[in-house]
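Appendix B. One record, verbatim.
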Amino acid sequence: MKSSFLFKSVFRETLLVGAGFSALALIFFWTYFRQDYFFGDFIAFWLPAYKFVLVWLKAGQLPLWQPYSLLGVSGVFQPAYAIFYPPLWLPLLANILFNRELSLSVLGKSLELYLYFHLVIAAIGMYWFSKKSLGVGRTAAAIAAFVYAFSLTMTSSIADASGLLGKALLPGLMLCLVVYLNRPSFGNFCFLVLANFLLFTTGYPYFFIYFSAAQFLLALQYGLRLTFRLILAFGLAAGLAGFFLIPSLHIFAQSQRFQAPPPDFHTLASFPPSRIVSLIVPQLLGYYSPIGDPRQLLTAGNLAWGVFPTLLLVLGVLSSRRQAVNIWLIALLVLSLAYALGGYLDVPRLVGTVFPPILKLRSHSQSLILTFFAGCAFIASGAQRLLSTKTIPRLSTAFAYVFAFGLVLLSLVPLYCPFCLTVRSQILISFSRFLVLLGLAILLFCLVAKWRSRVLLLCALVITLFEYSYFYSQLDFLHQSVSYSDYYRVNTLIMEPNPGRDLFRYYFEENQFTYNTAHLGLFSFTGYEATPLAAYSVLGALDALSQYRLANIKYVVTTSPRETPGLTLARTVPPTTPDQVVISGVPDLLYWSPQSQHTHYIYQVDGFFPRFYSAAQVAPCPAAKWCLTADAVARRTVYTASGTQPVGEAEIILNDYTPNHIALHLQTDRPALIASSELYDTGWRASANGRSLDVFPCNGGFRCFIAPAGESQVSLDYLPPGLAAGAAVSSVSWLGLLLVAKTRLAG
């Protein structure tokens, strides 16, 4: 009876918190939702990718392969799709049922709502973590939840349909861990397992690593026994997710990321990892302001609590007690920040010498979400202390000194940096804005501490909300007026919008079709997937014309005129073409825009190879070596590991082409090596007239097979490698968990 009452009480409070933050999100985002559209990665990758999935789901197929980008990549098992994340099923199902034409604008807006909803999930998780793990009251917990969900750190990630999910789940995941470590019951263990399983379904490998390390760090403080149980929970969660994790691991194993030399390529090639972050207010110099900071040492760090919350954070850290959770939060704050700054402190390479997989990671800055989370937890503690202590004289005095120091710096600018008043005036404006906010924040901080006034605290939070809203409004790449349907509407950049069975590729250099044309059924040489197969990159060793021919590229769409032999100008598209939207680069903008004034040139490639062709010659080449040259491409020489495959002319007719299945009609007088411009993956299988054929890599990683003599019907079918093993692991894990749960309940 008591447990039932507690459950109802918690459920009721969760609904109230969720409703409150949903209303706040409605106020915060309504104007943008009604008038604007997400740009950035959302429109470049996720929106067309999800339309591609829905098109084939409506056709009765789960697209296991995506042949329209990067010479072919994995489909729904691509981790970035997060297709097995249960909350994603709701907007996808709604579009299948109610968006009959699969309008991109309708799909895009429904996905926007889905992403906004994750801010509410983040707020609820942070509220309960603060209340249950730190023992603070409702007001302090609500303040931490508000900061976690609506500060620039989260809202600037709103269009990241993969990374945002893990950030939103982080507080709830850590809540499950703290509850289990303090009350290690079987029920709490199951919640911890399911929380980690949900994290795995988001498909964001950086968070698998960083969040697991954070959990492990806390468990160590509770002893080896509970640490071992946490490892068991990780293993069981991975087992439950095995049906998609194991195929995803196969994708990574075959990808450029895990085969490209040198071993620390990604650490070296990454942007300076998360740069140097301004801990007080990273918005100090503006979110995107390269003026005066060309290397973005201060402007690109995305760690923003806001001015008043940062004062609470300092108070929370200074007043924290010697408890396991507080020690863990301080360690999390320091270690994750040090790792995120690693591009300048060389931390990733240092860590990578101990744990080599770290060298394969690029987004070191993603660990900043742990810094941010720990900071929000201390904001809850600081708010609780502020409301329960009349005076905090030393800290208030220290804040006043910081404010005075800022005023002195501002007053010295005209004397020591007169050109800053003109050339870098925007930085001075930002700095002045910061000082105004800081002065107000310190004043309200002192008054709240003196009178314990929740009204004044509310005033400080309202000012913080305006601060968040202002900086969010500056994120121009999130607020574009071009609708999703207009952005991707077929226009004169596409020479043949309905190629039918004439398989060929486009090379879009700089326009809205560069990253994803899967939803249009058009094949593109470029793409946005994070894990292209290794062979894709080796084409760079060839000259441009040989690349185009070998990759089955018929049209090159570029913003710069070409004089390359073998390219024939087919069309010129001026920048102001009526009744169509053309997106490309604009000077001084970090994103492509419809304001572009580029002329686009469309060239047709002479002598491009068909999608499937018979080899004129076969030559040996070791698997780890790149042997193709421009002369070899011109002679239609195909390189294989042995170089002993038969050669013969073949007539090839395409009968059917879907993401998972290709049907060819072949006629050849003798066995012949058939090569293609599609990439090899171990999941591909082939058969001719019902008899199995070997599919093997050639030309450094392209897909080949040997056609038998005579007339044959060849089928090429794709099944993700590891799917059967993953399904078996998942089945055993789920059955085991359910049987143990049933036994516990019966007992």
